[in-house]
Amino acid sequence: MATMEEEEEALLEGEPPAEASEGKPMPALCDPSRLAHRLLVLALMCFLGFGSYFCYDNPAALQTQVQRDMKVNTAQFMALYAWYSWPNVVLCFFGGFLIDRVFGIRWGTIIFSCFVCIGQVIFAMGAISNTFWLMEAGRFVFGIGGESLAVAQNTYAVSWFKGKELNLVFGLQLSMARIGSTVNMNIMGWVYSKVQDLLGSTGHTTLGVALFIGGVTCIFSLICALILAYLDKRAEKILCKEQGKTGEVIKLTDVKDFSLSLWLIFIICVCYYVAVFPFIGLGKVFFIEKFKFSSQEASAINSIVYVISAPMSPVFGFLVDRVGKNITWVICAVVTTLTAHIMLAFTFWNPWVAMCLLGVAYSLLACALWPMVAFVVPEHQLGTAYGFMQSIQNLGLAIISIAAGMILDSRGYLFLEIFFSACVCLSLIAVVMLYFVNYFRGGDLNLSAKKREKLQKLAVDEKEI
Amino acid sequence: MRVSLLLLCLGSVGVSMATERPEAYRRKVSLEYNPGWNSSEANLLHIRAVGQNDTLHFVWSTIGAPTMVLVYTGSETSSLHVNWTKLLSNSPFGAIRVEPEESVLYSTAVVFAKVYEYNGTNTSDLSKALAGDFYPAYDLANFTWDSLDGKWNQSDLTATFRGVCADHGGTGWNGSIAFQVTAFEGSDRDAPLPRLLHSANSSKVAFVMHGVAPRGKQSRFALEIFALEEGSGRKELQSVRSIDDEYTPTIFEMAQLVSRPRNDSVGSSFVQWKTAAYASPDAQRTDTIHCQYYPLRTANLSLPGRSLAYAFFGPEAHYAVAGLNVSFGGEDSEAYQEKRYLSWSALIGYGEPPEDMFSTLVMVILAVALGTPVLLLVAGGITVCVAAQKRRYSEYDPIN
């Protein structure tokens, strides 16, 4: 601790960066201008989101336990997910603003991490005291922190890696998030059973203790946030760089200028994601009941979507960048997802096939869909467009989660799967419409990468002339 | 293409519904309590379901083990005769008959013999439970059954046989075991879970355990059932796995005990149930208690000593007995312990067991959801073609 203070004092003297590195040689790991140090920062950035992604899917990993111990029906259970989404319907617009104008990236990250921790603690307390509304409140607080933390994470990435390995870094962060979800799916059941052995029985106390143990990952992420803040401050002093900013400008009045294509992209996004995340939230019991999987196996298959998307996201990102033709990719992803849902609904075929398809399609969609926004929106409206997209995605998730719970309790999994298929079909309708709209208006959404490049060159040439 | 296929599917479903329609078959059902006897010291309920040129007799009784005897006759006027003195004596064989005897085409019986209780700490699988895991079984033949007086109802065609354990003399055996019988005049689906589809050829029985104190912390219960088939006939246990759980959420398996198919035109019967029991009289999906069933036992079985089945069928030479156990409660589920309520329903009937079908709502949603994008694609494709053609013409125009 003393050494850190010393260092800080030394930094406060405000030597110019070049001299700092020359005059006082630092080991590579401590020198912010060296790769080794940036890798350390990268590791911290990745673990920053680990806790929140781990805990986000705690309910899915413990669905049977939560429903049994808290004596809630499936709609109430799914409300745990809805309560996470509600605050983000609004916060998506303000996350960037809060980071840029109010807290700054460092304090912003720490504060959001605290929200995540406190949310998880309240969530676990709710289980221990057998009060379900307290659990819901916990998820609400957790939600306030969770999504904004992701924004903060991206801002850090931009500020440290801009112009260098940024896409790779984004990819790695996403992979880490998926790993967090996967680990959670596969380990929480085991944690619960260990606690059960320790306490001698199942029940809300067991659930609460298990959730507390899960919350340790959030504390870990908070520690990462603290170290990262210190390192960032230190780098600012040494390298004289500015504090990272999201640079997001949200102007809600821009909404009226959104094009038809953008609205179609929104519809694709909402209808697609509501057929994936709530399904994973309710998936475990489905695999146990319909396919006679053991609890362990069901957890494994339920996390396969995340497992696949961890390595595939960077691969598909690269592929889509090289080939272009985004709409075609999105159509492929949506049709594959539809196939997967229909297979799960109407056959007893090995569900690993369908779930792997779903995982691949999900990764592909994410890589092809989100960049499309940049093609249909002028740059100064990009922040608003992305904020809006996330906001309605959260709104959709909140509503559909509860609806899915109600459908499951009253009409079972077949109907639920058909409902999800119908959502994917809506998404398919939207993407087909987008294709034609783009075709008739001569948009460049579905151009190949080569043509895009040519067009860009042409534009540049024209400017020069 | 897909649309037309789906429409075809829909159409064929419609047609098959219209042509088959065993559902439309209706019977006139009447209930009769202790026919020919003025006392209510013993319970015998006669459900007479008259159809076109045939009659089904369901005879329920708690004299001895709770039993249902099912008799199918090819006459609208066949009737049940009960010799009460004989029935209540120690040799009841022949005490009940259906006349005229030559009109009887098929008969079977289902006996609910015992309720087992065992320690489910290590396994909830009855067949894997060790001998030491078992508590003394409840022999339903030794229960004291309430009089059915006032507990049967001609208008909703229901009756409830409620019994308490008699040889627990004064040790405070509170709680009860009941068999709730419902007869049906036509085909429909039950409103409460598990929402079994029934026809006029069947009646429903719900086995209800209420308030019976478990003797261990993780007790599991199991019901022992016997069914018999006359002559060379045998019973067969089938599992029907279905993708359709819209009526019984999250339950994908139907089990049925049926008559093994035979060449001669003797009839058949079935006992059909979903692999779920419920821990509440007002059952929700979350009250689901999983139930397991075990391979049929056929070797060297005889009916439990006293039951209506014995009174009707007599000594064993004429029939084959099949024994079946159904246990309630999966691993780590203490739903019964918490609510002290368990209800398991089964359908017992003559002929082939009813088969579930997709609801129309499912078909419609599916057709619309899959059809619209395809239609859109076709319409869009045509527009694109037309537009391309036009463009080509307009390109040629200036030359002309």
From TrEMBL, chain A:
GO terms for molecular function: dipeptide uniporter activity; protein homodimerization activity. Coiled coil: none annotated. It is found in: Lysosome membrane. GO terms for cellular component: lysosomal membrane; lysosome. Its main location: membrane. Signal peptide: none annotated. CDD domains: MFS_MFSD1. Lysosomal dipeptide uniporter that selectively exports lysine, arginine or histidine-containing dipeptides with a net positive charge from the lysosome lumen into the cytosol. Could play a role in a specific type of protein O-glycosylation indirectly regulating macrophages migration and tissue invasion. Also essential for liver homeostasis. This is Lysosomal dipeptide transporter MFSD1. It comes from Anolis carolinensis (Green anole).
From TrEMBL, chain B:
Pfam families: NCU-G1. It is a single-pass type I membrane protein. It is found in: Lysosome membrane. Belongs to the GLMP family. The keyword Membrane applies. The chain crosses the membrane at residues 361-388. The keyword Transmembrane applies. Its main location: membrane. Interacts (via lumenal domain) with lysosomal protein MFSD1; the interaction starts while both proteins are still in the endoplasmic reticulum and is required for stabilization of MFSD1 in lysosomes but has no direct effect on its targeting to lysosomes or transporter activity. GO terms for cellular component: lysosomal membrane; lysosome. This is Glycosylated lysosomal membrane protein. Residues 1-18 form the signal peptide. Keywords: Glycoprotein, Lysosome, Membrane, Signal, Transmembrane, Transmembrane helix. Required to protect lysosomal transporter MFSD1 from lysosomal proteolysis and for MFSD1 lysosomal localization. InterPro entries: NCU-G1.
